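User: Hello, can you help with two protein structures?

Assistant: Certainly.
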Amino acid sequence: MIFIDYMDSPIGAIEIQASAKGVTQAIFSGTERHAIKTNKITHSCKQQLNEYFQAKRKVFDVPLDQHGTVFQKSVWACLVNIPFGKTLSYRDIAEMLNNPKAVRAVGGANGRNPIGIIVPCHRVIGANGTLTGYAGGIERKSWLLKHEGIEVKDSNVNDKLDIKNVIHTRQSKTQFLK
């Protein structure tokens, strides 16, 4: 059985899904909503995310029930070890996996992460220190990094970012999760 709840955040609505074992999904949902059916895990996740947005939480301890390939799960395991306020590059993660040529595959797994913020894929940036893609929108990624006190290198893209333009949109790369 899948449990579902929603929460509003400073950067848009978040859809939280969980099994009886743990959180399976936390994505930006835009205005799309399904019937709400909560459990202790969705409640705890919502509480912890609210604490994060209020700058009262830096580490999440809600249980996770991740579904993906072995490789994706290995990348996501690296992501949860990136501390609040720190970033790594895709290359750094590939090297952590003892597979330095897997930079693009790491990027693909990062983009397929269905548990945003808690499994902090937003903390992965380009090797040159600039913002790179983010399934929830690059504007959200920039906001999250700034929220954590991380300054990213300016680029032509960064100058055009406007969080107001993405708040009501569904996470782009996670349309497959519907």
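That covers the first. Now for the second protein you mentioned:
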Amino acid sequence: MPYCRSHMNSSSYDTLSSVDGCAVPVVDAARVKDVLERMPPEDEVIDTADIFDLLSDPNRLRLLVAMIDGELCVCDLAAVTGMSESATSHALRLLRAHRVVSARRNGRRAYYRLADSHVRMLLDLGFTQHTGERPGESPQPHLAGVRSAAHPERI
């Protein structure tokens, strides 16, 4: 349970406040300076947060996992994910606008694929941290046959 004033008596809250509170604005000025110099510009932080926000939607994540093995058209992506074609197209537009996926046209059909190996690395990291397995190495039927991150050139 998070520390909340309503769940603590007065003395425990005061102790916690004194531990968490800073009596001075900066304790380790050299370290703060180093971190500030490494900090990406605000627009890059916002763009990256937007990417993680996109990846937080289970349907969009399913679409990305479906494309790990290569490109698929909207109809096939809808069939694989159980989404309507309209919802699939909308999700793909968002992913494409943020350069997470790319598309190629063949007549009236659009084929989507992961934009680059960085997207695959994010998926690998996410699944490895959560399940202990990479999507390409998972015994789960919905992820079977997917290539591992050891071969990002195959995306």
